[in-house]
Amino acid sequence: MTDIPNVRLIGIDFEREGKSHGYIGIQHSTTRSCYYWVPLPITCIKNSSGPTVLLISGIHGDEYEGQIALSKLAANLQPVDITGRVLILPMANFPAAKTGARTSPIDDGDLNRLFPGEANGSVSQQIAAYMEHALMAISDFVIDLHAGGSSIMHVAAAIVVAEEDAVRFQQQMALAQAFGAPYTIVYASRSQPHFGKIALTASARQGAIAIGAELGGAGSVTSNSLSLTELGLIRVLHKIGVLAGISNAPPPMRTQVLSSDRPDTMIWAMEAGLFEPAVTVGSSVRRGDVAGRIHVVDSPGYPSTEYRFDEDGVVTVARFMTQVQRGDCLYRIAFRPGHSPGSHE
Ligand SMILES: [Zn+2]
């Protein structure tokens, strides 16, 4: 019994010197195609000996900066540019990415809730298992690129799930600073129930130093968010030492560190209706500030419901879709250094 699912590797050999493009084939029998395999695109670039870096995007299929940036990197990065090995997995949840959806159309799997996966499980579970036990397991560093997706906008930020080991935490923070996003959000480990199931904690479980990034959202990209992604990747690869030579990327801007130590820093909709936001991501808010309103338009004369922030902080997530159901997240905030939970700054 192995933790690694029985996949087909097509055109790819992780030990081969040079650059190769290929696919990780996850078996999936369907009515249309009885011996079908789901093709996860992957690029391996190897030169001499050095650290192995795994670059991931498309864990959520409707988050695009990483997919575009990694596609360009896979085409342009050459073996002579590096010392070590770079693995590029641009559409990690391929069925979701191909559909432009957060979750897989095959099994509704949210890949970032499924680690460590199951070798004999559903397609999404097998992808998670292969990523953790075959790819993360041979990686020294993992960079996992995300954005807000279709439903939310996320402030541009490097993401650190803080490791308890001080040296490893310092390495995480050094990579986050090199990435150079306007914000770095530090999540306390185990601060959310699903944290053991995400790619960053899976990478740490396999011994890799891992950071993530949230780069925008609303199911779209901008020239700014793409530029940050591409330059941030170059800076991080230089910092790790896998990218040789002189960096042509400008130095990183100073990143503002925010922290989030618990899951209750969100505001959720308590009724269905149309959401009128009052603030945008990156806004500083104080306890009592109006966050937004929900209008129940199909009930004439029904008063709108006002939502307020109950702590001081910085808005890191704001809902982008106007239609809301009870249970939808409207906002999430994180805290500046020195914030004491539940109180004013
Ligand atoms: Zn995501």
Description of the structure:
The protein has 345 residues and is of the alpha+beta class. The protein folds into two domains: 8-260, Aminopeptidase; 266-334, OB fold (Dihydrolipoamide Acetyltransferase, E2P) (Beta Barrel), CATH 2.40.50.100. The chain is built from six helices and 19 strands. It has helices at 65-76, 94-99, 123-135, 166-179, 199-205, 223-240; strands at residues 8-10, 18-27, 37-47, 52-56, 84-89, 141-146, 152-154, 157-161, 183-187, 209-214, 256-260, 266-268, 273-277, 284-285, 290-295, 305-308, 313-319, 323-324, 329-334. A ten-stranded mixed beta sheet has the order 1-2-3-5-4-6-10-8-9-11, sandwiched between helices. Strands 7, 12, 14, 17 and 19 form a five-stranded antiparallel beta sheet that branches. It has a four-stranded antiparallel beta sheet with strand order 16-15-13-18, with no helix packed on it. The protein is globular and about 65 Å long. The chain binds zinc ion. The site of zinc ion has 6 residues, from loops. Zinc ion binds at residues 59-60, 63, 112, 146, 149.
